[in-house]
Amino acid sequence: MTASYTPGPTATTTLPVDPMTAAAAPFDRAVVIDWLESEAGWGLRPDGWTIHRDTAAADRYLTAMRNREATIHGGKVPPDYIRPDGKPRNVTITPDVARAIIARETHGDDKALWGAGRHGPAEGALVDLAVLRGTG
Fold it and tell me: What contacts 75, CB < 8 A, 6 or more positions away?
């Protein structure tokens, strides 16, 4: 059995789907956010990327992260922090990545699935486990 994913307006990639586990992946699109780290005395630098079920999940992650920072630092701006870099991007994901996002979400809003590398995939890209792990 195969499923067809369309990462862009013209390209189509066909991926194998396990019919026993396909039901566990209720979505095939996600949101990628790049992050910048601000470190006192060092400035800004790319700090990686996260992938979220949707923009609402990404917003919950950012809110939970900021609340945690406020608690730890008594409401003051911490000396080291991260912030979103640019606009969130929509990507197409494989069932394995959807299940990985779901598994990470079960640990709370302040937990996100981080991808390998300093910058996430482009708008419309296909994200599989190899891309997520930086091996693809």
Answer: none
